[in-house]
Amino acid sequence: MNPSSTFRIAVLPGDGIGVEVMQPCIDVLEAAMRRVGNVALDYEWLEAGANTYRETGNALPKATFDACAKADAILLGAMGMPHIRYPDGTEIAPQLDLRFDLGLYAGVRPIRTIPGVPSLLASPRAEAIDFVIIRESTEGLFASRGKGVVTDDREARDTMVITRPVCERLFDFSFRLAEDRRGSGSGKGRVTCVDKANVFASFAFFRKIFDERAARFPDLAADHVYIDAMALSLVLKPWEFDVMVTENMFGDILSDLGAGLIGGMGYAPSADIGDEHAVFQPCHGSAPDIAGEGKANPTAMFQSAAMMLDWLGERHAAPSARAAARLITDAIDAAFADGRLRTCEFGGDADTAAVTRAILAAIDNDTARVAAGGRA
Ligand SMILES: NC(=O)c1ccc[n+]([C@@H]2O[C@H](COP(=O)([O-])OP(=O)(O)OC[C@H]3O[C@@H](n4cnc5c(N)ncnc54)[C@H](O)[C@@H]3O)[C@@H](O)[C@H]2O)c1
């Protein structure tokens, strides 16, 4: 068969468990696309990361960046190793360079309870956790990366940057996502701005632009919560939120908190989306504490790959790609549904290979959906 939609994917496994979850992810993508038909991916495996820096002196070689810029989408494992650092003491993080250099302003981090995966929250309402953090990903406090100043070993300064054009695109993206989620039945039609506008001029500006853009979406609820109050609310009543949008550093922190609510980093996918490019990667890092043991939970990597297929399908009007994305998401839910698949976050013995096998089996078993999803 000659697939009608073929997309070029730049594959950056990176470091540590990023490498370990990438091939299983390709296996899952291929299995889903085989069942759906009419869509194919053409992979280009590329070098980048802390180990690449150690070997070559360059964490993101130009050839890798150029291939990423030409690809239809970028699939990334994880990058960075705590013991490999630049001379200024900061870590190698080419995933941040990609966000800045490709203008990937919207960091999309869905936080959803997978039925069958336990939550550490005692309330049964934890089963209804389903919200999305939009982390601005090109400015905020991270604009200071590589520009921080230490004076005479006495004082250090990093500067936060908030700009109107990025905020406008970011907030419009967030409101449109809330519309889509409400349309698909998963959202509440609510967007929450998370800031510290009570203290900082930059956040008062952020909030002012949020309110301006909210006025363009009168059918959606728009509200504000300070970051410290949001840290509390995400533990006490996370099921009340829908879409929340925040600055880069706050989003970095809140998304790990969110991952903790639904079982850990292995269940938290992400997409970094701009107007022309997008990177899809799990929220987790290279996890040096478990790297090499084969026990990393690959679910977030698979969920991120499903987000990639969905984004490609929407952008290129390729319904088969979106059907393959749904198939992967449904297979993940099916694999965990009976509560027996226990990953290492819970002290279980379901390692990378076991989780992958279970999800591949669920993809193969999902004949009903394939029939409905439309093999040509
Ligand atoms: N986007 C990225 O590539 C990214 C994100 C965060 C951290 N990092 C880098 O990764 C390195 C390690 O950072 P860290 O330890 O702070 O964060 P981490 O996400 O790598 O690990 C945090 C904890 O979560 C666990 N964990 C993470 N992913 C898991 C998975 N898939 N399955 C089971 N357990 C998992 C780890 O074992 C660890 O206990 C650092 O060098 C850091 O800079 C990279």
UniProtKB/TrEMBL annotation:
Its cofactor is Mg(2+); Mn(2+). SMART domains: Iso_dh. It comes from the Bacteria. One of its GO terms (biological process) is L-leucine biosynthetic process. Residues 8-359 form the Isopropylmalate dehydrogenase-like domain. Its EC number is 1.1.1.85. It holds the Pfam family Iso_dh. PANTHER family: D-MALATE DEHYDROGENASE [DECARBOXYLATING]. Belongs to the isocitrate and isopropylmalate dehydrogenases family. LeuB type 1 subfamily. This is 3-isopropylmalate dehydrogenase.
